[in-house]
Amino acid sequence: MKLGILFSGGKDSNYAAYLAKKEGYSIGCLISIISENNESFMFHTPSISAVEKQAEAMKIPIVIVKTKGEKEKELRDLKKAIKIAIDRYKIEGIVTGAVESVYQASRIQKICNTLNIECFNPLWQKNQLELLGDLIRNKFEVIIVGVFAYPLDSSWLGKKIDYNFIDEIKKLNHKYRIDPAGEGGEFETFVLNSPLFNKKLEIKEYKDYGEKNSWRREIKIE
Amino acid sequence: MILIINICKEKLHYYEFVKPIEDILRYKDIKFFTKPYNELTKRDLKKTKKVIICGTSIYDNEFLENCPDFDWLLNFNKPVLGICGGMHLIGTVFGNKTHTKKTLLKKKTEIGFYNEKFEEDFLGLIGEKEVYHLHNYYVRFGKDFLIFTGGKCAQAIKHREREIYGVLFHPEVRNKDLITNFCFL
């Protein structure tokens, strides 16, 4: 079965793509929604413009649709993007990186249902510490590109997900109930390398925006 | 030892519909083994104490074409819990000797959180509870089954004489205790 990956450039959609490939599925394309709304409920926003470089590194075509990020309009734009992927790449199903968010997962499920295609959520209900451990064991290089909760601040931007990160985030989970994999929207990530990449991505430059406990890093890839 | 039956045709659905149930059992130190429905042996059914039949996605319905693979349910005397697709199977196997799904399965799409009212205790659920739905069909159960929820669409059922339970919703998402309560029956 040929699948489209709903792709934000972060750890979850990259790991979901890896599982699809590992289980023998063909990846027809990546599908990315670029939201102009930094507060989008549906879509990851920091460094989303660098997804094209990830697609190049994976040698997988990408469908990009821009949205203003207004609540119901962004769902219409997502449906439009999936339709383009069906027409252009003949995909028969979508893979998402949804872990806990019923808001996200159920909306994507409904769109797939109306388009008569399969919907796969291979990270669904996965233990968040297990997910971080799986990323490290499978040699994913993941950095933090956004933080949105106390006590996370700009010093977290650019931090790699490694065993030290897991130790730190466990402590924050204990003390401040920060979700270890950022499922509550506490942080966002970007993947620089994975088993699906043919080359590692290098950051050419970056710029940080924000204040206090809300920061985003926009990166440019070489 | 609990037998978890995987009814997914698509391998990638294992992670969404089977692994979360394995994780719940693992977390509670409950021993289990998992088998695809079309690889079950008499030995598997003999060595297990209880059976959980997991669900699958709304488009992954091959298992319904192979209902005769579940005929063992008719004479099985150990507790069984069918989740979503697993509940469809229970209804179909017990309700229709010709094993055609069309007469028993009725179309109703529900995706997301819904509140359901449990009129009697059902594996720890009683009163109004939020449950997660992901289905295109429900089953019209016959008189052999008790129905624990209101409305025309049965959300939770139990065979009148046997320890055979079914839920249309996915307890692995918001009602994890239901699964452990079944395991500790």
CATH class term of chain B: Alpha Beta
- Radius of gyration of chain B using CA atoms only: 15 Å
The CATH architecture designation of the largest domain in chain A is: 3-Layer(aba) Sandwich
Can you give the helix content of chain A as a percent range? 25-40%
CATH homolog superfamily of chain B: Class I glutamine amidotransferase (GATase) domain
The CATH topology of the largest domain in chain A is given as Rossmann fold
For the report, how would you describe the main beta sheet of chain B?
7 strands, mixed
Beta content of chain B comes to 25-35%
Order of helix and strand elements from N to C terminus of chain B: EHHEHEHEHEEEEEHH
Number of helices of chain A: 6
Taken together, the total number of domains of chain A comes to: 2
Query: Tell me, what's the shape of chain B?
Result: globular
Order of strands in the sheet with the most strands of chain B? 2-1-3-4-9-8-7
Range of helix content of chain B: 10-25%
Described by its quaternary structure, the protein is heterodimer
Question: What does this 3D model show about the protein?
Answer:
The complex is a heterodimer of chains A (222) and B (185). Chain A is α/β, with parallel strands linked by helices and 222 residues long. Chain A has 2 domains: 2-120, HUPs (Rossmann fold, 3-Layer(aba) Sandwich), CATH 3.40.50; 141-221, putative n-type atp pyrophosphatase, domain 2, CATH 3.90.1490. Chain A has 6 helices and 9 strands. Chain A has helices at 11-22, 51-58, 73-89, 102-114, 128-137, 163-176, and strands at residues 2-6, 26-35, 62-67, 93-95, 118-120, 141-147, 187-193, 203-211, 214-221. In chain A, the strands form 2 sheets. A 5-stranded parallel sheet of chain A has the order 3-2-1-4-5, sandwiched between helices. Chain A is globular and about 45 Å long. The termini of chain A are far apart. Chain B has 185 residues and is α/β, with parallel strands linked by helices. Chain B has one domain: Class I glutamine amidotransferase (GATase) domain (Rossmann fold, 3-Layer(aba) Sandwich). Chain B is built from 7 helices and 9 strands, in the order βααβαβαβαβββββαα. In chain B, the strands form 2 sheets. Chain B has a 7-stranded mixed sheet. A two-stranded antiparallel sheet of chain B has the order 5-6. Chain B is globular. The mean pLDDT of chain B is 92. The A-B interface holds A 1, 19-20, 23-25, 95, 102, 106, 109-110, 113, 116-127 and B 10-13, 15-16, 19-20, 23, 57-60, 109, 111-113, 132, 134, 136, 172-173.
